[in-house]
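In this notation, each integer encodes one residue's backbone shape. One such record reads:

___
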Amino acid sequence: MKKIFCLVILLILLTNSALALERPIADEAAFYNAQAIAMIAEELYIDALRNSKRAIETDPAYAEAYYYEGVALSCLGYDEEAIADFTKAIELDMLLTAAYSSRGNSYNNLGRYAEALVDLNLAIILDPDFIMAYNNRGNSLFYLGRYTEAVADYDRVLALNPDESLLTTAAISKDIALKQLRRMEKATGKIVITSPGSVNIRADENAESEILYRAQTGDVFEYLGQSNTSYMVALPDGMIGYISSGLAKFRE
């Protein structure tokens, strides 16, 4: 799936001119940047990184070079490092729409969905027809349990006539989100603890995050949404807590 995403995002960026090469290839830094783009298209991400680094060494203020270095890093699974590159690209060019969208995607890959939403909303404000931003935002909303909004974003992707790979991905994602919606409609809106003994309800879905509440078997909480493999519930003190979906279920 990672390889498919990397090829799809490159195709969209180039065909939709969301991040066109604005400098002549005769420019040395632009030449290396163009080579990096070509290497990404061939899935040669290490070679792409070498060219991106040479472009940056030639011109340390070249926003696009940082952007494509970030794309290559993300394709290799180094999303923390990719975020640093996308952030640098944005610092150099605050209107670089693709950098916001790609940074949002890297946040999604790391499970940082709220941060992803901020970036993806900005990308869509900058370019209301930027197809990949809608797809990435749909993913963020899905993992936050906001399925109706996720479906709307996937519909927007489909309406913008994406290439075949993204068309298939968006259609599948929409179908999964609709199934989650139907599942929620059958539930009472309550989550009951099913695991024996004490269950920790945490500040986020990270298993090492702060414990906000200790629940017992049979305790019932109001369901607020789902984030990845955790249920979001309302705690007695008004805070939002996260329970692993393997420790609880919807009350029928």
